[in-house]
Structure formats: structure tokens, C-alpha cells
Description:
Layout: E1 9-15, H1 20-27, E2 32-34, E3 37-43, E4 48-54, E5 59-64, H2 67-74, E6 79-82, E7 84-85, E8 88-89, E9 91-92, H3 94-106, E10 111-114, E11 121-125, E12 134-140, E13 143-150, E14 155-160, E15 166-168
Antiparallel strand pairs: 1-5, 1-6, 1-9, 2-5, 3-4, 7-8, 10-14, 11-12, 11-15, 12-13, 13-14
Amino acid sequence: MTNSKFRQGWYVLYTKPNQEKKVHKELKNQVETFLPLKKELKQWSDRKKTIEKPLFKSYVFVNLNTKQDYSLVLKNSGAVFFISIKGKPALVTKKEIEVIKLFTGDFTGIETVSVQDIVGTKRRIHHGPFSGHQCYVLESKGKNKVIAQIDSLQSCIKAELDSAYLLEVE
């Protein structure tokens, strides 16, 4: 963050590989953090177990209020740098954070996809916790997959949703 004016908001901290949970735990007492997790069913030879893995590999979201918070976060042993897009720190909007929280809280089988992978019909969700949000819909193996675009990260989140929840966008 050299030669630029600090702005309050949600930044994306890039962590060392497999250090997301550790960094999140250590920082949550100093700044507001968010680590979106997805549930996966893992099969071993003798058992099955549901585990939680980060939705975005090596990313922890941190809500920073001061330039001192910015410096403090980078001092964490698992922190590497803040994600930048086009040379500026990526600031994720509060609305995008809420969409990510909704997806990780209400869906199973969620995953991230590239913005370039979006091909589908734009719809509005009219029922449930996503009521009012727009999404893209893909059909995969007879099931509707909805995609919410997270512009700040140039990324998307994909999950399954019943078609009864969707309306055409005019």
C-alpha cells in the first residue's frame, strides 16, 4: 500500500498454502475477519467424514479500519500479501461478503469458478435467503447450478438451487 490512500473496507489477504484457518484464528482477535468454508465429504478406506475447507484457497478476508490495521495484518507469520487487481488492493464490497456468507451458509457442494466460465441465463432469485439477488443459471445433469459473480475478485461461486426459486430477468 505504498503511495496510495488507505480506504476502509474488506481486503483479501493471501496466505501461505494451507494456513488460512491458522491466520483467521490468529487475526480474529485483532481485526474483523471472514474465512468462507465449504463442506466436503471425504472417503477413506474405512470411513467417511465431512470436512470444512476454505472456499478460496489461500484467501482470508479482513475488514480494515485504519492503515495501522493493514500493517498489523501483514505481520502475521502466515500472511504473504494483499491481493491486488490492476495494481490496486482488491476491496470486496459488503454486499459481496454477504453473498459469500449466504452461499457458504445455505448450500452444499459449492465451488469457485472463473468469470470466463459463465455461460447461462441470467435470473433473479425470488424466494429464500437469496431473494432479490441476480445470478446465472447453468443446467448440469438435470440440476440447476446457480452462479453468483464476485466482481471484486474477478471470480464466481457456483451452487445448486431448485428452479422453483428462480424468475426470468426482464
